[in-house]
Amino acid sequence: MKILAIIGATCSGKSALALNLASKINAYIFSIDSLSIYKEINIASAKPTKAELDSIKHFAIDVLSPVESVNAGVFIRLLDNAITECKKDSKNLVIVGGSSFYLKSIIQGLSNIDSINIESKFINKSLSEKYVILQNLDSIFAAKISQNDTYRINKALSIFEATGKIPSVYFKENPPKPFPHKIDIYNLQIPRDVLIERINKRTKSMIKQGLIDEAKYILESYGDSIQPFKSIGLKECLLYFKGQINLSELESMIAIHTRQLAKRQSTFNKTQFENIVQIDSNIESILKKIT
């Protein structure tokens, strides 16, 4: 059984590529996306269509209620189940999605942090301020990571808040459990101007498809304190509902935030994985690299 992951910036075409690839290598698809995992959130998550979901079996889509929290522990349990099913059905597995930090956590191994979200009361502070806080809390751990490593800084602060233990002590007491399967990682890259154009088109399409109505339904059903309302597309709708921005500003803000996310994703993907293979959307060249 072969397991491979396709990562890349939002709107880079990962999902379409994964569908094409899975059909050619006899594979199921595992979605590693922090919004697609939720039921009822279909437009904001740019979830695959029903036809796409029906064409190839997908895992980790429409699993959680919007009131539930997602973390790396949730994904690793779902991934274990997916791998078991793939083995039973003699299938390969294509992992795809924009939440690469969950993939990194899975590969590195978890330290009993299933219930710890990469979230913090320091969320509104700048990265440099959070790094100073971490230095004051745990200078040993802070010295081991870059002051620009957003993921590890947030993770360290979250561990301290959740357990009361500084990260260096916590990780010593809870060593990571290595993931027992090899995952080959492919980073999909497209030209920046093409990516920006796709982001703008997707934003317009989401609003046209009914993003505002979807966000209103989720808000009225579950309130504004749920984890999904921290996500791009939904958090901007909250400002729109409060009258703080108009429709034109809503579209502009979502597009800007999505471009910023794409830049962060690209940086993360280039720096946080070892032995990563850079690819474009040419399916034949990808198949050669895989085989």
Automatic annotation (TrEMBL):
One of its GO terms (molecular function) is tRNA dimethylallyltransferase activity. Its cofactor is Mg(2+). It catalyses: adenosine(37) in tRNA + dimethylallyl diphosphate = N(6)-dimethylallyladenosine(37) in tRNA + diphosphate. Its EC number is 2.5.1.75. Keywords: ATP-binding, Magnesium, Nucleotide-binding, Transferase, tRNA processing. The record marks S99 as: Interaction with substrate tRNA. InterPro entries: Dimethylallyltransferase, IPT, P-loop_NTPase. Residues 33-36 are annotated as: Interaction with substrate tRNA. The keyword Iron does not apply. Substrate binds at T10, C11, S12, G13, K14, S15. One of its GO terms (biological process) is tRNA modification. ATP binds at G8, A9, T10, C11, S12, G13, K14, S15. Catalyzes the transfer of a dimethylallyl group onto the adenine at position 37 in tRNAs that read codons beginning with uridine, leading to the formation of N6-(dimethylallyl)adenosine (i(6)A). Monomer. Belongs to the IPP transferase family. This is tRNA dimethylallyltransferase.
